[in-house]
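ok here's the first one, seq then C-alpha coordinates
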Amino acid sequence: PFWAAYLGSALAVSLLGAVYAAQSLGPRGYLMIPLFAALYAYLYTALDSEEYALLIGSVGLFLIVAAVMF
Protein backbone atom coordinates (compact mmCIF):
# COMPACT_ATOMS: atom_id res chain seq x y z
CA PRO A 1 0.00 0.00 0.00
CA PHE A 2 0.93 3.61 -0.52
CA TRP A 3 1.16 4.54 3.17
CA ALA A 4 3.73 1.82 3.87
CA ALA A 5 5.95 2.87 0.98
CA TYR A 6 5.59 6.53 1.97
CA LEU A 7 6.44 5.76 5.60
CA GLY A 8 9.52 3.76 4.63
CA SER A 9 10.85 6.41 2.29
CA ALA A 10 10.06 9.22 4.76
CA LEU A 11 11.97 7.41 7.52
CA ALA A 12 14.95 6.77 5.26
CA VAL A 13 15.18 10.35 4.02
CA SER A 14 14.59 11.80 7.51
CA LEU A 15 17.34 9.70 9.06
CA LEU A 16 19.72 10.51 6.22
CA GLY A 17 19.05 14.23 6.61
CA ALA A 18 19.40 14.07 10.38
CA VAL A 19 22.71 12.20 10.21
CA TYR A 20 23.99 14.74 7.69
CA ALA A 21 22.85 17.61 9.92
CA ALA A 22 24.48 15.95 12.93
CA GLN A 23 27.78 15.84 11.05
CA SER A 24 27.52 19.59 10.48
CA LEU A 25 25.88 20.78 13.70
CA GLY A 26 26.90 18.10 16.17
CA PRO A 27 24.28 16.33 18.29
CA ARG A 28 21.85 19.22 17.73
CA GLY A 29 21.45 17.93 14.18
CA TYR A 30 19.28 15.09 15.46
CA LEU A 31 16.70 17.71 16.42
CA MET A 32 15.89 17.79 12.70
CA ILE A 33 14.07 14.44 12.98
CA PRO A 34 10.85 15.93 14.45
CA LEU A 35 10.98 18.69 11.84
CA PHE A 36 11.28 16.15 9.04
CA ALA A 37 8.52 14.04 10.60
CA ALA A 38 6.17 17.03 10.73
CA LEU A 39 7.00 17.95 7.14
CA TYR A 40 6.38 14.44 5.83
CA ALA A 41 3.15 14.13 7.85
CA TYR A 42 1.95 17.40 6.33
CA LEU A 43 2.87 16.26 2.82
CA TYR A 44 1.14 12.90 3.32
CA THR A 45 -2.00 14.65 4.52
CA ALA A 46 -1.97 16.92 1.49
CA LEU A 47 -1.42 13.97 -0.86
CA ASP A 48 -4.07 11.80 0.74
CA SER A 49 -6.77 14.47 0.81
CA GLU A 50 -8.38 14.82 -2.59
CA GLU A 51 -11.07 17.35 -1.77
CA TYR A 52 -9.08 19.65 0.49
CA ALA A 53 -5.62 19.41 -1.10
CA LEU A 54 -5.63 23.01 -2.36
CA LEU A 55 -6.75 24.35 1.02
CA ILE A 56 -4.19 22.28 2.92
CA GLY A 57 -1.43 23.37 0.56
CA SER A 58 -2.40 27.04 0.75
CA VAL A 59 -2.60 27.07 4.54
CA GLY A 60 0.71 25.22 4.83
CA LEU A 61 2.46 27.60 2.46
CA PHE A 62 1.03 30.58 4.35
CA LEU A 63 2.36 29.20 7.65
CA ILE A 64 5.79 28.52 6.17
CA VAL A 65 6.04 32.05 4.75
CA ALA A 66 4.88 33.51 8.07
CA ALA A 67 7.50 31.48 9.97
CA VAL A 68 10.25 32.65 7.63
CA MET A 69 9.17 36.28 8.00
CA PHE A 70 9.51 36.15 11.78
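and now the second one, same deal
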Amino acid sequence: ERETEIRRMLGERGSMSFDEIMMASLTRSDIIASFVALLEMVKNQSVYMSAEENGDIYFEMKTSDGGADG
Protein backbone atom coordinates (compact mmCIF):
# COMPACT_ATOMS: atom_id res chain seq x y z
CA GLU A 1 0.00 0.00 0.00
CA ARG A 2 2.66 2.55 0.97
CA GLU A 3 4.92 1.36 -1.85
CA THR A 4 2.11 2.10 -4.32
CA GLU A 5 1.76 5.61 -2.92
CA ILE A 6 5.52 6.24 -3.15
CA ARG A 7 5.53 4.98 -6.75
CA ARG A 8 2.69 7.39 -7.56
CA MET A 9 4.53 10.33 -5.96
CA LEU A 10 7.77 9.49 -7.78
CA GLY A 11 5.87 9.09 -11.04
CA GLU A 12 4.34 12.54 -10.64
CA ARG A 13 7.48 14.33 -9.44
CA GLY A 14 10.26 12.37 -11.14
CA SER A 15 12.50 12.25 -8.09
CA MET A 16 12.12 12.96 -4.41
CA SER A 17 14.41 13.28 -1.46
CA PHE A 18 14.19 10.92 1.49
CA ASP A 19 13.03 13.86 3.61
CA GLU A 20 10.22 14.73 1.16
CA ILE A 21 8.97 11.15 1.20
CA MET A 22 9.08 11.02 4.99
CA MET A 23 7.29 14.38 5.32
CA ALA A 24 4.43 12.93 3.25
CA SER A 25 3.99 10.33 6.01
CA LEU A 26 1.40 11.37 8.55
CA THR A 27 2.01 8.97 11.43
CA ARG A 28 4.88 7.05 12.96
CA SER A 29 3.47 3.90 11.36
CA ASP A 30 3.45 5.64 7.95
CA ILE A 31 7.09 6.63 8.41
CA ILE A 32 8.07 3.04 9.20
CA ALA A 33 6.02 1.72 6.28
CA SER A 34 7.63 4.27 3.96
CA PHE A 35 11.12 3.32 5.09
CA VAL A 36 10.44 -0.40 4.62
CA ALA A 37 8.83 0.25 1.22
CA LEU A 38 11.88 2.25 0.07
CA LEU A 39 14.21 -0.53 1.22
CA GLU A 40 12.16 -3.08 -0.75
CA MET A 41 12.10 -0.86 -3.84
CA VAL A 42 15.90 -0.44 -3.73
CA LYS A 43 16.37 -4.17 -3.10
CA ASN A 44 14.12 -5.00 -6.07
CA GLN A 45 15.94 -2.39 -8.15
CA SER A 46 12.73 -0.59 -9.09
CA VAL A 47 14.17 2.78 -8.02
CA TYR A 48 17.52 4.49 -8.25
CA MET A 49 18.95 5.88 -5.04
CA SER A 50 21.63 8.55 -5.03
CA ALA A 51 23.33 10.57 -2.33
CA GLU A 52 24.40 14.18 -2.66
CA GLU A 53 27.61 15.49 -1.12
CA ASN A 54 25.54 17.28 1.53
CA GLY A 55 24.09 13.92 2.61
CA ASP A 56 20.65 14.26 1.01
CA ILE A 57 19.35 10.99 -0.42
CA TYR A 58 17.21 11.02 -3.58
CA PHE A 59 15.01 8.35 -5.14
CA GLU A 60 13.98 8.12 -8.78
CA MET A 61 11.83 5.52 -10.55
CA LYS A 62 13.51 3.33 -13.12
CA THR A 63 11.91 3.15 -16.57
CA SER A 64 10.91 -0.08 -18.24
CA ASP A 65 14.14 0.02 -20.28
CA GLY A 66 16.23 0.09 -17.10
CA GLY A 67 17.12 3.78 -17.21
CA ALA A 68 15.94 6.55 -14.96
CA ASP A 69 12.94 8.65 -15.94
CA GLY A 70 13.65 12.14 -17.22
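notes on #2: The mean pLDDT is 89. Residues 28-43 form the longest helix (16 residues).
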